[in-house]
Inverse folding.
């Protein structure tokens, strides 16, 4: 590594004028030698003691380089920025090499603190990226300190194993999109200077994008009219004029303007695309939604419901074809747009491209096919929900029917014991004397009944039987 | 029954549902004489005992009600209902008697007719449809329960002659349990050859009286002494105590009485040793642990 010699002034503090001299920078140290040989302000400082280096911006009053150490700093004023930059880069390289990348708290002051490995030239973006990675991940930072700064690994070796980390995050850089601001368009107030009747609207690309998203009719008009019929400037002038008319609640003037200028009327009329969209949405509402359930919190009769935008209190003229958006309508639309978020990534520069991109993103997935699926789903859901219990068989759990081959078994398992307990010894008796067949048995039974009929009622219990000792006296 | 709710019942008013066994095989077996119960007490004599008993039940309390149900081998049916008489109805004892006999005759004819098509296996042990008549009786009782807040105290008296029908086991046990649930005591008087395990259980479970009269020619006296009193008065009488019924189970496989064994978790069949498959319902069991007393399916009965 070579050395640099540059004429410079050493300033002990910023307030004092510098002492002219020569700054000589080598790999290990820098040496300042004043022109005045009597001066004691000769510096010989090793780079190791330097923590950070600061510098003034290109084009600022003085070309300064400040090398900070523990106690303070060495401030050098260069004659030109180019000289300063050469020194700055040199210091940067050396510092990077010496202390590697140790992200410090005041990194905003060290935008140029780079840590290129020898022989490897990194773009500032890549460098920044690495520093950012180290800052975000304390573990990585610790490792970096441990290996690179102690010289075990070189910078490139350290990152070689973490290539995926570098790549991943490179992609991720723009992953998270910024959404719309949640402030409403109503906040874009026209500025009036009290002297003339001039009213100034200021539109930024951001605002224009939001206007397109929230007001599809304006978006469509823009695509149709610009730049075929009118310039972009005319278009926005017209829009602002319409907005202004609307805002001032000057319905008569607005109507007159609308009658004159059909393009302007577009902005004042009800937004038919929006209305379509809403109708579409209503059609897709869950058919089982119970509106009556919300009747308790009846917001329709709340005071603020139906309030016109911008605090207008005049009664809504239903016949007027001009748009009368209520505050809650506007709020809802705005909320929907903010929630939808930005569907595309376009630099908010050219209004035209923004408008086209928005149109593309809206077309996106075919609504028709989506609707078909949706309506089928809705139908099924409605069927499910409106099921009438009385018209269905009872829900039965599947069960295995109990199949008992022979219930006799149960009986047999008990009978033996039961009879044994009673001392019944007639078990072998049952098969005797059943010598009649079925018909004969019935005939006999019939005969018995007729006998009973004929004989009538006799003495039921014969007296000799009744007197037997063991009949009912010893039952217990 | 239409006039029942208007009556003023007290707790000594009874509704007695009598189940009369009209098993032709049993009663015909007495034709040959010998020591068969049906020989000592042929059906005509049996009716001579039963019909006066029914009349005396009606005599006990003006509001008492008697229902007679015949149990055949093919069907069961209501024979007589004292509540159906109406105001001028058959109060006369002989009229009641002839009505019962007439209806009984019709019933036997019907029973025979129904049995014509399906000739059942001949043999000694064709049993009566006890489960059917028990169910009829319980249905009648349920109807009475629903007739009003106050109703006569129902009970069921089974006059059983034929042996138990093992094939009716499940149905009979279900009837017994439903009687137990509706607090209807089942009294049983067995006039047959052997004791009835069914009725023994029925009376035991429902708190009725089980009796097998040793002297059949004095049947009326048994009936009058044991089964005539209403449930309220029973508390003050010395009635036949239920003999210590041994409800210990015996296993289905060897008919051995066991204190501990395996029970099918599906159909409650009992086995003395582990089975791979239940012989009664066909459920397949998992491998059982070796020791029977560590299995969850074991039963303990003293």
């Amino acid at each position: 590594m070579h050395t640099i010699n540059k004429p410079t002034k050493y300033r002990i503090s910023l307030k004092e004028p510098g002492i002219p001299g020569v700054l000589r920078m080598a790999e290990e140290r820098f040496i300042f030698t004043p022109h005045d040989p009597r001066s004691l302000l000769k510096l010989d400082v090793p780079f190791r003691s330097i923590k950070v280096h600061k510098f003034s911006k290109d084009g600022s009053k003085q070309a300064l380089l400040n090398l900070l150490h523990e106690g303070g700093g060495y401030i050098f004023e260069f004659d030109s920025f180019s000289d300063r930059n050469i020194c700055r880069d040199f210091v940067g390289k050396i510092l990077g090499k010496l202390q590697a990348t140790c992200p410090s708290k005041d990194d905003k002051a060290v935008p140029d603190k780079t840590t290129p490995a020898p022989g490897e030239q990194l773009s500032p973006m890549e460098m920044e990226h690495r520093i950012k990675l180290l800052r975000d991940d304390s573990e990585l930072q610790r490792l970096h300190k441990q290996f690179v700064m102690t010289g075990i690994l070189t910078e490139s070796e350290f990152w070689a194993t973490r290539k995926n980390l570098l790549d991943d995050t490179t992609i991720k850089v723009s992953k998270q999109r910024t959404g719309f601001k949640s402030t409403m368009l109503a906040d874009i107030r026209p500025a009036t200077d009290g002297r003339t009747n001039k009213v100034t609207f200021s539109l930024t690309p951001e605002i224009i994008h939001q206007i397109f998203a929230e007001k599809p009719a304006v978006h469509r008009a823009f695509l149709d009219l610009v730049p075929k019929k009118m310039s972009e400037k005319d278009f926005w002038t017209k829009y602002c004029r319409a907005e202004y008319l609307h805002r001032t609640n000057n319905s008569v003037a607005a109507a007159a303007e609308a009658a004159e200028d059909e393009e302007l009327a577009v902005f004042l009329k009800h937004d038919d695309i929006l209305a379509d969209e809403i109708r579409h949405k209503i059609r897709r509402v869950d058919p089982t939604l119970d509106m009556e359930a919300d009747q308790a919190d009846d917001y329709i009769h709340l005071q603020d419901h139906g309030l016109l935008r911008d605090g207008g209190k005049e009664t809504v003229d239903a016949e007027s074809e001009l748009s009368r958006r209520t505050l809650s309508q506007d709020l809802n639309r705005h909320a929907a747009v903010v929630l939808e978020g930005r569907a595309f990534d376009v630099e908010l520069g050219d209004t035209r491209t923004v408008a086209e991109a928005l149109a593309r993103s809206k077309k996106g997935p075919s609504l028709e096919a989506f609707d078909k699926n949706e309506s089928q789903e809705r139908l099924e859901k409605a069927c499910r929900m409106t099921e009438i219990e009385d018209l269905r068989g009872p829900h039965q759990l599947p069960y295995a029917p109990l199949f008992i081959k022979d219930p006799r078994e149960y009986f047999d398992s008990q009978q033996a014991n039961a009879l044994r307990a009673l001392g019944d010894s007639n078990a072998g008796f049952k098969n005797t004397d059943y010598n009649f067949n079925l018909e004969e048995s019935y005939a006999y039974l019939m005969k018995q009944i007729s006998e009973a009929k004929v004989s009538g009622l006799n003495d039921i219990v014969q007296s000799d039987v009744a007197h037997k000792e063991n009949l009912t006296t010893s039952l217990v | 029954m239409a006039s029942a709710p208007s009556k003023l019942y007290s707790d000594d008013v009874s509704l007695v549902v009598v189940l009369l066994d009209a098993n032709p095989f049993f009663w015909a077996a007495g034709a040959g004489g010998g020591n068969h119960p049906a020989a000592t007490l042929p059906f005509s004599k049996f009716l001579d005992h039963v019909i006066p008993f029914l009349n005396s039940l009606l005599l006990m309390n003006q509001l008492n009600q008697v229902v007679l149900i015949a149990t055949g081998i093919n069907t069961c049916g209501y024979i007589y209902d004292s509540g159906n008489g109406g105001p001028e109805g058959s109060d006369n004892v002989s009229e009641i008697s002839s009505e019962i006999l007439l209806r009984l005759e019709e019933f036997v004819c019907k029973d025979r007719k129904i049995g014509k098509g399906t000739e059942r296996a001949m043999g000694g042990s064709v049993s009566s449809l006890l489960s059917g008549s028990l169910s009829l009786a319980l249905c009648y009782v349920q109807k009475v329960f629903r007739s009003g807040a106050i109703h006569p105290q129902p009970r069921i008296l089974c006059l059983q002659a034929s042996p138990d029908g093992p094939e009716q086991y499940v149905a009979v046990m279900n009837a017994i349990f439903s009687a137990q649930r509706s607090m209807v005591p089942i009294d049983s008087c067995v006039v047959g050859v052997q004791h009835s395990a069914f009725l023994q259980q029925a009376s035991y479970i429902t708190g009725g009286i089980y009796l097998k009269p040793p002297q059949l020619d004095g049947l009326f006296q048994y009936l009058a002494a044991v089964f005539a009193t209403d449930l309220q008065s029973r508390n003050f009488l010395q009635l036949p105590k239920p003999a210590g019924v041994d409800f210990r189970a015996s296993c289905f496989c060897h008919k051995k009485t066991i204190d501990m064994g395996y029970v099918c978790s599906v159909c409650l069949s009992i086995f003395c040793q582990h089975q791979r498959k239940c012989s009664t319902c066909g459920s397949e069991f998992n491998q059982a642990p070796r020791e029977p007393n560590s299995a969850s399916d074991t039963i303990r009965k003293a």
Notes: The longest helix of chain B spans residues 93-117.
